């Protein structure tokens, strides 16, 4: 996940620096450190998918990944509760619905006098209620506002989740604020990018620069033909005319802000990285 995020951002990120000290200790077979990193990272994996889906033209998958984010948090907390107190709460509801698992978690945390139990469980209940559990063709996709609500509620859930793990006697205090800050930065950056002033129109210019180029799609040696760029965009569910995409690639190859180099002859151009994305983009988070 760290490597994928590094590639997405076009260079080293704070996530990498936060995780590296854990990996060094895990390499020395420190099981407690491995467990703590898992607690920090596993919900984050799902939330990054939430943000990725927010940038796409459909919103359904964003709410689905938000639901999976909640499922992972409930699972982690129930299993950790069982590990700490030698109970079998998770086993009793493992094959049940999310609602049953959430209810069991609420009961366990309230019984142990965790002050944020209701807040945490109520937030997850709201997020999960926005998730469409039926088939993809049964109902229209959720509206952007519903997806935005779902995504924005994940940060307070993540914070309360870490508080619950500390309550369950996990030593997460040192890096608690670090990972919450990273999560907050993700939220502010991506939701702003995706929704803008109310409606954010994804253009071929934006995709060629901030998605394809940033992810290293344009090979510096072989380059990419227009047909290859079109195939990649269609795999991401975007459909533009050849003329529109060609104009975007041409624009990206000219002027002071050029990030591509165009080679070859008319109707047979190839587009290559002018600079590595790591040099062009400054790390954001």
Q: Could you explain the architecture of this structure?
A:
- The protein has 285 residues and is mainly alpha-helical.
- It has 2 domains: 2-195; 204-280, Orthogonal Bundle (Arc Repressor Mutant, subunit A).
- It has 14 helices and 3 strands.
- The protein has helices spanning 2-9, 14-27, 31-54, 60-85, 89-93, 98-111, 117-129, 144-152, 154-167, 173-195, 204-213, 226-235, 242-251, 277-280, and strands at residues 224-225, 260-263, 270-273.
- It has a 3-stranded antiparallel β-sheet with strand order 1-3-2.
- A hairpin with a 6-residue loop joins β2 and β3.
- It is elongated.
- Mean pLDDT is 83; it is low at 133-139 and 191-200.
The figure for the number of domains is: 2
What is the CA-based Rg, rounded?
22 Å
Low-confidence stretches: 133-139, 191-200
Task: Give the SSE order as H and E letters.
Answer: HHHHHHHHHHHEHHEEH
Give the overall average pLDDT: 83
The helix count comes to 14
Helix content: 55-70%
What fraction strand?
A: under 5%
Adjacency order of strands in the biggest sheet: 1-3-2
Structural class category: mainly alpha
The major β-sheet equals:
3 strands, antiparallel
Measure the end-to-end span.
14 Å
Shape: elongated
Topology, number of strands: 3
Summed up:
The chain has 14 helices and three strands.
Provide keyphrases for this structure.
Arc Repressor Mutant, subunit A; 2 domains; 14 helices; 285 residues; mainly alpha; 3-stranded antiparallel sheet
């Amino acid at each position: 996940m760290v490597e994928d995020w590094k590639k997405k951002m076009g260079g080293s990120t704070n996530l990498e620096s936060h995780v590296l000290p854990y990996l060094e200790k895990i390499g020395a077979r420190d099981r407690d450190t491995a467990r703590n990193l898992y607690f920090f990272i596993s919900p984050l994996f799902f939330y990054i998918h939430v943000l990725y889906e927010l940038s796409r033209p459909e919103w359904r998958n964003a709410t689905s990944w938000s639901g999976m984010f909640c499922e992972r948090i409930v699972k982690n907390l129930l299993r950790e509760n069982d590990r700490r107190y030698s109970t079998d709460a998770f086993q009793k509801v493992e094959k049940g619905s999310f609602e049953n698992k959430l209810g069991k978690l609420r009961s366990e945390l309230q019984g142990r006098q965790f002050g944020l139990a209701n807040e945490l469980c109520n937030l997850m209940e709201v997020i999960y209620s926005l998730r469409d559990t039926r088939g993809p063709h049964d109902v229209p996709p959720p509206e952007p506002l519903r997806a935005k609500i779902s995504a924005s509620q994940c940060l307070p859930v993540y914070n309360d989740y870490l508080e619950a793990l500390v309550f369950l006697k996990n030593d997460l205090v040192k890096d608690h604020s670090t990972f919450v800050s990273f999560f907050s930065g993700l939220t502010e950056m991506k939701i702003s990018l995706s929704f803008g002033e109310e409606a954010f129109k994804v253009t071929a210019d934006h995709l060629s620069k901030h998605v394809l180029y940033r992810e290293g799609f344009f090979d510096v040696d072989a380059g990419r033909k227009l047909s290859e760029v079109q195939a990649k965009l269609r795999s991401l569910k975007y459909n533009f005319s050849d003329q529109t995409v060609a104009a975007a690639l041409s624009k990206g190859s000219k002027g002071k802000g050029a990030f591509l180099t165009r080679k070859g002859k008319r109707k047979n151009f190839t587009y290559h990285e002018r600079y590595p994305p790591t040099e062009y983009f400054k790390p954001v988070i």
